[in-house]
Amino acid sequence: MTFGLWTEVIFVAKMFGDDALRRALKEAPAGVFDPPPWHYWHYRLGFDQVPELPKREFR
Questions:
Q1: CA-CA 20 to 30 A from 10: which of 21, 25, 30, 42?
Q2: Cα distance between residue 36 and residue 51, in whole Å
């Protein structure tokens, strides 16, 4: 969803469905998404709101 080619994303969506993509967004670790795909996928998958990107915790 961030690093794949569009044809690869379409393949994954057909194989696993939009629910799997929604789950991937909800469980995304910090650093995987940057703002453009984060916003696009929330819009594309029908989320009402776009939450903040997950943040890395530094110790």
A1: 30
A2: 13
Q: What is the 3-state secondary structure (H, E, C) of the chain?
A: CCCCCHHHHHHHHHHHCHHHHHHHHHCCCCCCCCHHHHHHHHHHCCCCCCCCCCCCCCC
17 inside domain: yes
The reply to whether 57 falls in a domain is no
Please determine, for residue 1, whether its predicted confidence score (pLDDT) is greater than 90.
Answer: no
**Is residue 29 domain-resident?**
yes
User: What is the count of structural domains for the chain?
Assistant: 1
pLDDT tens digit sequence for 6-39: 899 889 999 999 999 999 999 999 999 999 999 9
- The domain in which residue 26 lies consists of 6-44
